[in-house]
Write a structure and sequence with these properties.
Blueprint: H1 9-13, H2 19-30, E1 41-47, H3 55-70, E2 73-80, H4 86-98, H5 105-118, H6 122-145, H7 150-174, E3 179-182, H8 204-213, E4 220-224, E5 227-229, E6 235-237, H9 243-253, E7 258-263, E8 284-286, H10 287-295, H11 306-312, E9 316-320, E10 329-332, E11 341-357, H12 363-376, E12 381-386, E13 390-395, H13 401-411, E14 415-430, H14 435-449, E15 455-458, E16 464-470, H15 474-487, H16 497-506
Parallel strand pairs: 1-2, 1-7, 2-4, 3-4, 7-9, 8-10
Antiparallel strand pairs: 5-6, 9-10, 11-13, 11-14, 12-13, 14-16, 15-16
Helix pairs in contact: 4-6, 4-7, 5-7, 6-7, 8-9, 9-11, 10-11, 14-15
Adenosine-5'-diphosphate binds near residues 50, 81, 263, 265 and 300.
């Protein structure tokens, strides 16, 4: 009973439910993969702040890593985010410093308590103390010069991850797992200089590979997520939630067998569990579906994180560190889902711009001018629908209002523009080949609820259908559609085969 590259059957009993699935997985994903060491599954494991809330959780994660090793996995890297809500606390400390108050108490206390609990060695304690002291000095500097640039902000938040990896590496060593802490730049993570939202440079892949070649594969490299170095060796961050991207970059660069992102939920769920308690885990999604889910609002994964994994075809598994025996979600190139809808996602508080051409421009001349102006103001669009003489599009809350005003001014010689606020994007991740079935249900539900759709769009990716609604109607729309597509309890009579199937199963 041999499973893939791992010879320990126990290791996969909770990962794959059936033999058939194992075969799919091997054929679809591992078929052409070179296994580096017969009998070992090489992985990168990523743990977010939700998995590292306090000493108890750090200890739990360290033991989970040890268990995984005993089950036949070899974690070449463990990528850690900052503990708990440390990144938010550091951002708040930065704001306080601008108001003249320097306070790092909550962050210091969390790390001190954790180190006390583990009776951390003097050398690690000194290292973490030195980092926290440096952070505090920085806050004093901010309070004095009353300035906190995006560059300084990235350095400020970096202390969270730099502290957490040192504590995690020591805890692993204490429980008998050889480990060493690394700052991301020491294992080749280099980015551009777009502070706050830096992009990985293509040379990162080669640098990561080379860095790991010189490391002992039996010593776990505990690496800071989220942060990197710009070409001038300044600290950058990859955007909120960026540790997922660090993990996929490492896994892809080293062509590992699997990238594991450990969270506080049983995988990618059918929708945000904070809005729908009945949200259920989705067993499998494609890279493209996972990317669209994140772009359109699901905070479970960083929007760009799928790119390295997709390019290298390394599967990503989303698992629950609070419930490791749950199967989780596998993200790969292989499409196996049969549900009409894979998941529902949403983005609140978006603006809609309706742009009508006032000049006799051909469609291409009009669109070229519109997009030229968006580029000029660095405004990024989410959803778009157009005709020969008009285009409607959405801008999320990250887009700056000043830039939007300037854009509207620049367009005034050739277009009338209306701006509507307080709208939401509701996106269905679904196979658009079956869009008639999906749309039939959606529009019946919306008609029943009195919800009017301001705009809709079917993405070129062929996996998403988006609707623009009023903000105040979003929650009900998501809850009712979830009932139809996942709970077999729709407020309208639908022709959905999925609902029919659910009914039959209940009988
Ligand atoms: N479709 C979804 N599936 C799973 N989780 C989701 C989804 N949409 C939103 N979430 C939220 O994402 C959270 C996990 O992401 P995050 O807090 O960033 O994890 P971590 O810090 O461990 O990386 C969950 O606790 C859940 O509330
Ligand atoms: N600590 C960073 C990076 C990160 O990825 O965090 P998490 O994995 O907890 O979402 C943040 O809070 O954005």
């Amino acid at each position: 009973f041999l499973f893939g590259p791992t010879r320990n059957p126990r290791s996969h009993t909770h990962l794959y439910q059936t033999h058939h699935e194992v075969e799919d997985y091997r054929e679809g994903i591992h078929g052409s993969r070179n296994t580096k060491d017969e009998g070992v599954t090489e992985v990168v494991m990523k743990f977010g702040g939700s998995s590292l809330a306090d000493a108890t959780r750090v200890d739990h994660v360290a033991n989970l890593i040890k268990d995984q090793i005993q089950e036949g996995y070899r974690p070449r890297a463990v990528v850690c985010s900052a503990m708990g809500k440390t990144t938010n606390a550091l951002l708040a400390a930065g704001d306080f410093a601008l108001d003249g108050k320097v306070c790092l108490d909550a962050t210091r206390e969390l790390h001190m308590q954790t180190m006390d609990e583990f009776k951390i060695s003097d050398s690690t304690r000194e290292e973490v103390n030195a980092l926290l002291k440096e952070c505090e000095n920085m806050l004093t500097g901010v309070s004095l010069i009353q300035e906190l640039s995006p560059k300084s902000l990235d350095q400020l938040v970096s202390y969270g991850e730099r502290c957490s990896v040192r504590i995690m590496a020591e805890r692993l060593n204490q429980i008998g797992v050889p480990a060493k802490a690394f700052d991301a730049w020491d294992v080749g993570i280099v980015t551009d200089s777009d502070f706050g939202d830096a992009k990985l440079l293509p040379e990162s892949s080669g640098l990561v590979r080379r860095a790991f070649e010189s490391l002992d594969p039996n010593v776990v490299a505990v690496v800071t997520g989220f942060i990197g170095h710009s070409p001038e060796a300044k600290i950058t961050t990859l955007g909120r939630g960026g540790s997922d991207l660090t993990a996929t970059q490492i896994g892809a660069a080293m062509d590992l067998d699997e990238i594991q992102c450990w969270k506080d939920v049983d995988g990618i769920l059918s929708t945000d569990p904070r809005l729908v308690k009945a949200a259920v885990p989705v067993k499998h999604v494609t890279f493209q579906e996972a990317s669209e889910l994140s772009y359109f609002g699901a905070s479970v994964l960083h929007p760009i994180a799928m790119q390295p994994a997709m390019q290298s075809n390394v599967p990503v598994r989303v698992k629950n560190s609070y419930n490791p025996s749950a199967e989780g979600t596998i993200i790969s190139n292989a499409k196996t889902a049969t549900n009409l809808v894979t998941a529902l996602t949403f983005k609140r508080d978006v603006k809609v711009l309706d742009i009508y051409s006032t000049k006799m421009l051909g469609a291409y001349g009009f669109l070229a001018r519109v997009f030229g102006d968006f580029e000029k103001h660095k405004l990024s669009v989410d959803v778009l629908a157009s005709s020969e003489v008009s285009v409607s599009l959405t801008l999320d809350k990250k887009q700056k209002m000043d830039s939007i005003r300037e854009l509207v001014k620049d367009m005034s010689p050739y277009a009338d523009v209306t701006l509507t606020e307080r709208r939401s994007i509701l996106t269905l991740i679904a196979d658009v080949k079956r869009s008639s079935e999906v749309l039939a249900t959606v529009f019946q539900v919306f008609a029943e609820l009195g919800i009017s759709v301001k705009m809709m769009s079917q993405g070129a990716s062929k996996v998403n259908i988006s609707f623009i609604l009023r903000d105040d109607q979003l929650d009900t729309a998501v809850q009712e559609l979830h009932k139809c597509f996942f709970e077999g309890n729709c407020i309208v009579n639908t022709v959905s085969p999925y609902v029919e199937m659910m009914k039959e199963e209940t009988v």
